[in-house]
Design a protein that fits this description.
3 domains; FAD/NAD(P)-binding domain; 7 helices; single chain; six-stranded antiparallel sheet; 30 strands
Length: about 450
């Protein structure tokens, strides 16, 4: 590694939001060395949230979702080539085209991909889609524009619910199948899941909860699906929205603490090796990262959030070119948003890190509210529905570990809508079709480790 951290060779694997913002920040922080960004998609970095919203509604072309650059990062872009391995001793990233790229410091920002349907033959039927990439969105939008009779959405998380919303806005009949008790339950718990279920049904969604899809039917072209309750759904299009898979397989032999839950790192974004020792030349940011957060009992958080990808990438880039005393931690409170069925849903904190919830403002009936979540007597999250102006206030309560439930009139001078908190009913994600957008996990080794003892 060069003596001056602002020189040398930095490689970023992942050419999406986190990779781009990290590259820009490196230059803003004074890095003058060689910078290479590797991405498996052929496109320059683009924004993913519009894909399930404006793009599916036909209001934006899929190729118009490019991310604006804050500045030219003066990088070598290796697009359309996948990283297949990492040699931490030789400090090389191995590529699918047989080449390798040497680094002094490495940032892993490989993010996630859509979880595919479990049966490969059924997944290959014409009319079966996932939605994660720009190309996915373009193909699905084209099929929706053709006016299918019915769309089947498998998975009631945010992506699945937004797809169902877009279909109904287009006037397309849609069935949403969710193995769990309701849509969004894995992200927001049982109370707001009831609101989401009522909202979907009120907008004409054929919502099927507590059932599994046992098979996709068709002879070359998708025609329908069988459900575990014995019913059948006839449809022309199926969208598999069963959560995401973290792109960490290429690190299997790299000796890092990397697995299905992501790459474990410290609060400064430095990756851990498989023995729990922090590295000083490998960093991680974005959806692929697992990091400790003091507000959530130092559990390891894995987040699939736009804002987290930006802030973590900026922290990682700063720390890659800064000496130890000048490094800073990534302690941002998670924030995310969704737009569906005419509602604007915004969240701060981690709703799944809770045991109770209280409606602090508004009401479920009005579909305009603030739900505040608590764990062991302190506030850990807040979710607003068409009341986003209060989000900043509750973020301050989360950051200061304010007691739960919030005091009467804490936000707007009015008494709490609900006099008593109720259980937040956050289910085990293993029982859901849709994966959580926030996962809190203790460290679970993905393979048996060899115990290394010093020689006598």
């Amino acid at each position: 590694m060069p003596d001056d951290l602002r020189e040398g060779r930095i490689v970023i694997v992942g050419a999406s939001l986190a990779g781009l913002r990290a590259a820009e920040t490196l230059r803003e922080e004074g890095f003058t060395g060689s910078l290479t960004v590797i991405g498996d998609e052929p496109h320059p970095p683009y924004d993913r949230p519009p894909l399930s919203k404006q793009v599916l509604l036909g209001r934006m072309a899929a190729d118009a979702a490019a991310l604006p650059m804050r500045r030219d990062p003066d990088a070598e872009w290796r697009l359309g080539v996948r990283a297949t391995g990492l040699d931490p001793v030789g400090k090389q990233v191995l590529l699918a085209d047989g080449e390798s790229v040497t680094y002094d410091r490495l940032l892993i920002a490989t993010g996630t991909r859509a979880r595919p349907w479990r049966n490969a033959d059924e997944a290959a039927l014409d009319g079966v889609f996932t939605l994660r990439t720009r190309d996915d969105a373009g193909r699905l939008t084209e099929r929706l524009a053709a006016g299918p009779r019915r769309v089947l959405v498998i998975g009631g998380g945010f992506t699945g619910s937004e797809i169902a919303s877009a279909c109904r806005e287009r006037g397309i009949e849609v069935t949403l199948a969710e193995r769990g008790p309701g849509p969004l339950v894995g992200a927001l718990g049982g109370t707001l899941s009831m609101l989401a279920a009522g909202l979907q049904r009120a907008h004409g969604v054929d919502l099927r909860c507590g059932v599994t899809v046992t098979a996709l039917r068709g002879n070359g072209r998708f025609t329908g699906a069988d459900l575990s309750d014995g019913s059948r759904i006839d449809a022309d299009v199926c969208v598999v929205a069963m959560g995401a898979v973290r792109n960490t397989e290429w690190l299997a032999e790299a000796g890092l603490a990397a697995g299905p839950r992501g790459v474990a790192c410290d609060a400064g974004c430095r990756a851990f090796n498989m023995y729990g020792i922090v590295t000083d030349d490998v960093f991680v940011a974005g959806d692929a990262a697992r990091f400790p957060h003091p507000l959530f009992e130092y559990q390891m958080l894995s987040l699939e959030h736009w804002g987290n990808a930006v802030t973590q990438a900026e922290v990682a880039a700063h720390n890659m070119v800064s000496p130890e005393p000048a490094r800073r931690p990534h302690l941002a409170v998670p924030v995310f948003w969704s737009s569906q069925f005419g509602l604007n849903i915004k969240s701060v904190g981690v709703p799944t890190f809770s045991d109770q919830v209280v409606i602090a403002q508004g009401s479920l009936d009005e579909r305009r509210l603030v739900a505040v979540y608590g764990y062991r007597g302190r506030i850990t999250a807040a979710v607003t529905v068409n009341m986003a102006k209060w989000l900043e206030y509750y973020q301050g309560l989360i950051e200061t570990a304010a007691p739960f439930p919030p005091g009467p009139g804490a936000a707007d001078g009015r008494p709490l809508v609900a006099a008593f908190p109720i259980p937040s009913n956050v289910p085990d994600p293993k029982g859901l079709f849709h994966g959580p957008t926030v996962a809190l996990t203790g460290y679970l080794p993905d393979r048996r480790l060899t115990v290394v003892r010093p020689a006598d």
